[in-house]
Design a protein that fits this description.
single chain, 862 residues, alpha+beta, Phosphorylase Kinase, domain 1, Transferase(Phosphotransferase), domain 1, six-stranded antiparallel β-sheet, 28 strands
Length: 862
């Protein structure tokens, strides 16, 4: 299970397990927080009733919002397995703490109880009863605050009625079960107060009030036994605290605190040192058995002057197992107990109050073999026996009660009275007994049935009519007849819960009533089927909410037409689901067509199908995504057109690739892409040639400037083609080629000037005066004349030129490369033939040149 994701929750590890759920520590992905994830076991998830109950637990708990109640965050179903996420609490439950500590200090025990009571008050205000308050369901966080957990047995109540799980079924944990819960009666918040009282008792003493070997015995003790006194074993417990606990543990819910808020107020009163009380002047007192009782004002007596009854009669423990069936359901939900035990009432007793007689009373002996002997109040003065009187002889006749009773159903009772006596003087007739002759009325009574009465005349010669000729056939009481009619009516109207409640009442009064037993079996079966239908109906509504139309129709079709609300509820849902399914299928078809059109690049056609889908279902994720795709493709299409017009083919190719990724079947864009690829191939070929010219230029610029210039000019032509023919942005290449051409022309010019200077040196060394004069620009005739005179004088002087060389140091060209100023170092070595004088040395000089045609001519020599 670790690592599996349930909706927004990723399982980390298991932290607890019970029959009704496995609890895991999980991580809520969206909010990045730890949660407790409760998951219904797979074996139970197959049972729709368990699934419905599991969901009810989540929903009931989610209704509660209180600091002392575990919060429920979310409910969901994964692969048919229900789960819900709730608050994860770092701490330990009271059950574990009790094992470690034994018992708690009084103030801490009261504080914990008060916090739980506040949580129960929040549930009470939402008409929810927890029904399983016990230490293991009460958590103490690390800071000491309280959290109430596990509303798995919780039920909502309303209008004063508590809904139980099934007829005569009680859910809870026997050690903490209230008397009314143990008897299978309806429970309310006062049952939770009793269970909390058991918890408080245990916190204060370290022991449970009742211990027994079997759940049956435990329930018996909760119903009939008073809890042991706390102060007998823990004398340090204040009397007010003990009184508080005992009031919480009252057998009669009417004698407990009526709401959790009353309990909170009482605890706060004890904490502040005040006495724990009830409304008005009544206070809680300790009775002799360690319980609590409400004091009665002095001078008040009960009916017939008898003292108030101390406690109800209780059944024999030996008889209890015969009428109690214990069904243990393994898991964290406690023990389910089916109590068929009738509420026990003390037998009817006639109480005689004896007052001091003015005349000695005649004490009449009691009738023989009475069922119950009532207690006799001790007389204030001893009775005075009358003087013995000789009785007259009477005719006695035996009435065959045993014979009549043997033919009657179990539970039947016979009563007899003289015909002239009122009904109130009838006596039970349990066995054959002799009576004085006379007229008598014998009545047969059976709980839940009408009384049968017959008149008999008892004479010496016999009984008239003979008792064995009388048929004693019981007829149901009008009350039960009406109840059975209501049961059948409720079953016909599929109000099974009401029918089960009625049957519960009937069978408590007449447990062996065959008709009621058969109706109970039929009603339980029908109710189970009805709950399954209700669960299916709720599941279908959820599926509709989740827009799972086909699944909803499948579930709704399982609901039989006999369902009471079929026409009002089911048929409209089926109609709605079919309409939504039809709409959904049309929507799906339009979406699929739109997607297909977009694959082909048919944007406008796809737009129309998307609009039709929108008309069916206005806002969906599919529509939103397709509209975004349409917008993106339309923008790409426009951008591609613009870039092709600009002949920016590489960008156009990128955009085409993006377009075809979303619309791979678009033939128009595919052909456009082929054209773009072809143009890019031409551009690449031109760029390759340009690159070759670059290489030629670099290789020859130093050794052969003219060759480098030729390569530069060819490169310039390729750039022009790229720019003018292919429309490329060749700013960088254009600038590079411009520099190449400039550089090549500079180098060519420098080489030409250098060669011209070398030619000048050669002519001077050879004494070629005319050739030198010819190298001077015609525009500078003064220079020509000056050089002509100087050179003529020099050559005629008999000077022998050994070395005459101008070594170029720098050539400064004009921007147009048509003039230049050259800085040279002139080296010379001359010998005068006649005098033998030898001159040798070097000096810097400047010469100016101008380009005329393909020649460089001297314009000045310094």
């Amino acid at each position: 299970m670790e690592g599996i994701t349930f909706g927004d929750f990723k399982v980390i590890r298991k932290i607890a397990e019970g029959g009704m759920g496995q609890i895991y520590l999980a991580r809520q992905i969206s909010l990045d927080r730890d949660v407790a994830l409760k998951i219904l076991p797979e074996r139970l998830a197959k049972d729709e009733s368990f699934k419905a109950r599991f969901e009810r637990e989540a929903r009931e708990a989610a209704r509660l919002n209180h600091p002392a109640i575990i919060s429920v965050y979310a409910y969901g179903i994964k692969d048919g397995i229900p789960y819900f996420a709730m608050e994860f609490v770092e701490g330990e439950d009271l059950a574990g703490l009790l094992k470690k500590r034994g018992k708690f200090p009084v103030r801490e025990a009261l504080r914990i109880t008060k916090e739980v009571a506040k949580a129960l008050e929040a549930a009470y205000k939402k008409n929810i009863v927890h029904r399983d308050i016990k230490p293991s369901n009460i958590m103490l966080k690390e800071d000491g605050s309280v959290k109430v957990t596990d509303f798995g047995l919780a039920k909502a109540v309303g209008g004063g009625t508590v809904f139980v799980t099934q007829a005569n079924v009680v859910l809870g944990t026997p050690h903490y079960m209230s008397p009314e819960q143990g008897k299978g009666e309806k429970v309310d918040t006062r049952s939770d107060i009793y269970s909390l009282g058991v918890v408080l008792y245990e916190l204060l003493s370290g022991n449970l009030p009742f211990k027994a070997d079997t759940p049956t015995s435990l329930i018996y003790m909760h119903v009939y036994e008073k809890p042991p006194s706390l102060r007998e074993h823990c004398p340090e417990i204040p009397p007010a605290v003990e009184a508080l606990v005992m009031k919480m543990l009252e057998k009669d819910p009417n004698n407990r605190f009526q709401t959790p808020s009353e309990l909170v107020a009482a605890i706060e009163a004890v904490e502040s040192g005040a006495s724990v009380g009830t409304a008005g002047p009544m206070t809680l007192e300790m009775d002799s058995m360690g319980g609590t009782k409400t004091s009665t004002p002095a001078g008040v007596t009960t009916a017939a002057g008898a003292p108030p009854s101390e406690k109800p009669a209780k059944p024999s423990l030996a008889v209890l197992p015969l009428v109690v069936l214990i069904a243990v359901i393994v898991g964290g939900v406690g023990i389910a107990v089916v109590l068929l035990l009738q509420k026990q009432k003390p037998p009817d007793v006639n109480v005689t109050v004896v007052t001091p007689p003015t005349q000695p009373p005649v004490v009449k002996p009691p009738p023989e073999e009475v069922a119950v002997k009532p207690p006799v109040q001790p007389p204030t003065q001893p009775p005075v026996q009358p003087p013995a009187v000789e009785p007259a002889k009477k005719v006695m006749v035996k009435f065959p009660a045993a014979q009549i009773l043997s033919g009657m159903p179990t539970g039947s009772k016979l009563f007899i009275r003289k015909a002239e006596e009122p009904e109130t003087l009838k006596q039970p007739l349990l066995a054959d007994k002799e009576f004085e002759s006379g007229l008598y009325v014998v009545s047969a009574e059976r709980k839940g049935y009408q009384t049968i009465s017959h008149n008999f005349k008892l004479e010496k010669d016999g009984i008239e009519p003979p008792p064995d000729t009388i048929k004693w056939e019981f007829e149901l009481s009008d009350k039960l007849k009406d109840a059975l009619r209501r049961v059948k009516m409720n079953m016909e109207e599929q109000k099974y819960r009401l029918a089960l409640d009625e049957l519960d009442v009937i069978l408590k009064e007449v447990p062996d009533l065959d008709e009621a037993q058969k109706l109970l079996v039929e009603c339980r079966k029908s109710y189970s089927e009805f709950q399954k239908i209700e669960d299916d109906f709720n599941q279908a509504k959820q599926l509709l909410k989740d827009e799972e139309w086909e699944k909803a129709i499948e579930v709704l079709k399982k609901i039989p037409t006999s369902y009471k609300d079929y026409e009002q509820k089911v048929l409209p849902l089926i109609k709605q689901a079919n309409e939504e399914l039809k709409k959904s299928l049309q929507f799906k078809k339009h979406i699929e067509t739109a997607q297909s059109e977009l694959q082909k690049g048919e944007i406008e056609s796809a737009q129309s199908y998307i609009q039709m889908a929108q008309n069916l279902i206005p806002s969906t994720k599919e529509v939103t995504e397709l509209l975004e795709l349409v917008k993106r493709l339309r923008q790409l299409r426009d951008d591609i057109r613009v870039e092709v017009e600009r002949k920016n083919y590489r960008r156009a190719l990128e955009l085409s690739e993006a377009y075809l990724k979303d619309a791979p079947l678009c033939e128009r864009t595919r052909k456009q892409r082929e054209f773009i690829v072809g143009e890019i191939a031409k551009i690449d070929a031109s760029l390759a040639r340009l690159d070759e010219q670059y290489k030629t230029f670099e290789a020859s610029i130093e050794s052969s400037p003219s060759k480098a210039l030729d390569a530069a000019l060819k490169a310039q032509e390729e750039v022009r083609l790229l720019k003018d023919v292919f429309g490329q942005d060749v700013k960088d290449a254009d600038e590079k080629v411009r520099i190449m051409v400039e550089r090549a022309r500079t180098e060519v010019a420098k080489k030409e000037i250098t060669d011209t200077i070398k030619t000048l040196d050669s002519h001077f060394s050879s004494g070629k005066l005319n050739e030198i004069i010819a190298m001077v620009d015609d525009q500078n005739s003064a220079l020509q004349r000056r050089l002509n005179k100087q050179l003529s004088d020099f050559l005629l002087s008999g000077v022998q030129v050994i070395v005459s060389e101008n070594k170029v140091e720098n050539i400064s060209l004009s921007e147009q490369k048509d003039s230049a100023v050259v800085t040279c170092v002139y080296r010379y070595h001359i010998i005068h033939s006649e005098s033998g004088v030898e001159l040798k040395g070097e000096k810097k000089r400047k010469m100016s040149f101008v380009r005329k045609g393909d020649r460089w001519l001297i314009t000045d020599i310094e």
